[in-house]
Amino acid sequence: MRPGIKLFVGNVPEEATAEELSELFSGVAGPVLGIALMKQFAFVHLRDEAAAARAITQLNGHQLHGRRIVVEPSRPRPTNTCKIFVGNVSAACTSGELRSLFQQYGTVVECDVVKGTGPAALGPPVPPGTSWGPQSPLWGGGAGSAV
To answer: Do both 67 and 82 map to the same domain?
Structure first.
């Protein structure tokens, strides 16, 4: 068995904490080596494949704060792809609109829009054919915008 298995945990409720996930996973799989908690998902590092198998079997579909979490092996991204974060996007923006915007630069393998509650979530609807920039409804404004 190889040490240090990483699991993907999806559909994580916003109110869940790393400590809570650590307790949940250690209760069925033994020591948790580390947790990276993001918005609505997490990565949990366990000691070995046996611990990971127990966690998947017992926790996949487990109710946490009213949501069924998804627990599965983490699959590394292919080495010839990259993932980018785009911040300050209007809440009205859809994944389809972002996909269309970025496909001019290459094949978009995956595109997710994580809805937030900050000021950028209050933007207007995005008309078809809109280009990216400060005048665009996709632009959430502010100096921290990243592409």
So the answer is: no
List all residues 6 or more positions away from 143 whose beta carbon is below 8 Å from its beta carbon.
Answer: none
Q: Which domain holds residue 95?
A: 77-141
Residue pLDDT, tens place only, 105-144: 888 888 888 765 544 444 444 445 544 454 444 444 444 4
Does residue 147 lie within any of the structural domains?
Answer: no
Which residues are bridge partners to 139 per DSSP?
89
Model pLDDT for residues 12-33, shown as the tens digit of each residue: 999 999 999 999 999 999 999 9
39 shares its domain with 94: no
CATH of the domain at 44: 3.30.70.330
Helix axes 49-59, 18-29, angle to 10 degrees: 110
